[in-house]
């Protein structure tokens, strides 16, 4: 990573879900990662984040506080806060249901 790291705080991690709050100070990034589970993101801040992928040029993703979005497992990216203010979101990852 060439930027400061975003701070993840795991709030729930049980057999069904992992819920993580991500706090991005100005200029911070998640670092490259691959999602191994389907997930939902609930932005706590309105603004734009930069999404870096291995297959396309970086692009701006508009986020609105409390307006969730979902993605399938397999996404590989780095999320960057290019803003001058902190950005926060909550990520809910869905684990396999017991017995499935």
UniProtKB/TrEMBL annotation:
Domain of life per record: Bacteria
Protein name: Cupin
Organism: Pseudoclavibacter terrae
Organism lineage: Bacteria, Bacillati, Actinomycetota, Actinomycetes, Micrococcales
């Amino acid at each position: 990573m060439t930027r400061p790291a975003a701070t993840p705080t795991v709030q729930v991690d049980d057999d069904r879900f992992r819920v993580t709050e991500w706090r991005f100070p100005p200029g911070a990034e998640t670092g490259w990662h691959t999602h191994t589970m389907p997930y939902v993101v609930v932005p706590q801040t309105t603004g734009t984040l930069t999404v870096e992928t291995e297959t396309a040029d970086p692009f701006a993703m508009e986020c609105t506080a409390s307006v969730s979005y979902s993605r399938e497992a397999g996404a590989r990216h780095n999320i960057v806060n290019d803003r001058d203010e902190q950005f926060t979101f909550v990520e809910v990852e869905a684990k396999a249901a017991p017995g499935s």
